[in-house]
Amino acid sequence: MNSSPFPINRFRINFSIWWLAIICDHALILYFLGLKTEVAIFDSLISNLLLMLSCLAVIQILRFYLPRGRQYMNIFFICIFLTGIWFLLTKWILKLTLADYAGYTDFLHHSLSVRFSIGFLLLGFITMISILWYNQQEKNELDKRNQDAEKLTKEAELFKLRQQLQPHFLFNSLNSINALIGARPEEARKMVQQLSDFLRGTLKKEETQWVTLQEELQYLQLYLDIEKVRFGNRLATEVNIDENTPVLKLPALLLQPIVENAIKFGLYDTTGETIIRLYAAHEENNLVIRVINPFDPETSSPQQGTGFGLKSVQRRLYLLFARNDLLSTQAKENIFTTTVKIPQTQS
After folding, report:
1. CB of 165 closer than 8 Å to CB of 206
2. Average of per-residue pLDDT values in the chain
3. Least reliable range by pLDDT among 42-51, 206-215, 254-263, 321-330
4. Which among 60, 67, 213, 323 would be 20 to 30 A from 94, CA to CA?
5. Rg, C-alpha atoms of the chain
6. Contact, 249 vs 211, CB < 8 A?
7. Distance from CA of residue 157 to its chain's centroid?
8. Domain residue spans of the chain
9. Residue-wise over 277-292: b if at least 16 C-beta within 10 A, else e?
10. What's the whole-number mean pLDDT along residues 160-175?
11. Given this model, what pLDDT does residue 120 score?
């Protein structure tokens, strides 16, 4: 069942003005054709009020029965039927009430064909407008359902991407804890606590899609603390952000897979100290973040740095912004740079 247009104030006002104009026009025509003023007004009121009721009946019928394909013929016959009912009822009432006025009966008889034609055309016009209205209502409802379905699909895929990232990091952390338990139990306990805080933050942020850069960096620090337990003095980090960037927004948990990718291809194939650098700036209404890590060209191919972690980030950005140009990578000499742009369109 479609929603009726009558609860809309604009429709009620336009509908009332439309019929008031028709009533006045009808009365003026009858007056200029020689009928007395009171006869012209009464004729117009009876004819058009009954016709308006017929139009209202059509609008209600179409609310519950919207034609498809060949069913339009049914609407055509309904219009003829309602026009006939209106015509006969109007003729009977006008004869009953205005027969005493001289010459009116003859005038009514000669105007019957014109009345029927005009009544059918007006009823048909209202029917056509109603069909267009209800079809548009159905289209809007279908579009809304499609948008809701697409939104749910995107949310489900975003959730899946985030869940795919967690086991990879969790397994690495548990392996590190297992290795530390015997040799360095204090560091193992510390890492368990840090891992607990990290995972607790992950669960809380599932409900919040957008956070400030400052909040994201605080969460990222939990991850880096865990990695520093794993790699010890081999891992160092530098974070440089512009003054106006801490309040800028980005999708929650976006930076961790980027930094994890930098650590993976900056430390796994090296033995010395590795510095992971993160820069953030506000450029052309974008929050631009660059993560830079060194790599050994002889033992690590920079193309490997575009594995699942970065692909998941790129896919997530596409789902949020419908753009594929928000994440880019560059390998120059022994430096690998990952750049991500987050448009500041969130309120």
Report:
1. no
2. 83
3. 206-215
4. 60
5. 37
6. yes
7. 16
8. 9-146, 184-343
9. bbbbebeeebbbbbbb
10. 65
11. 93
Residue with tokens 């104030």: 9
* Tokens linked to 164: 């795919």
Tell me the per-residue pLDDT of 240-249, one tens digit each, with 9 for 90 and over. 999 899 999 9
- Torsion angles phi and psi, residue 340, rounded to 5: -130, 135
Nearest of 69, 184, 79, 65 to residue 126 by alpha carbon:
79
Q: Which one-letter DSSP state was computed for residue 1?
A: -
Residue listed under structure tokens 């699909």? 153
Who contacts 221 (Cβ-Cβ below 8 Å, separation ≥6)?
Answer: none
What band does 34 get if pLDDT is binned at 50, 70 and 90?
confident
Quote the CA–CA distance of 103 and 215 in Å, as a whole number: 89
Among residues of the chain, what percentage have pLDDT more than 90?
Answer: 30
Predicted structure pTM score: 0.56
Q: Which sign does the torsion angle of CA 286, 306, 308, 202 carry? A: negative
168/155 Cα distance (integer angstroms): 21
DSSP letter for 192, please.
H
- In 10 A of CB 326, how many CB atoms? 19
Is the pLDDT at 116 greater than 70? The verdict is: yes
Which three-class secondary structure state does DSSP give residue 37? helix
d(CA 340, CA 255): 9
CATH code of the domain made up of 184-343: 3.30.565.10
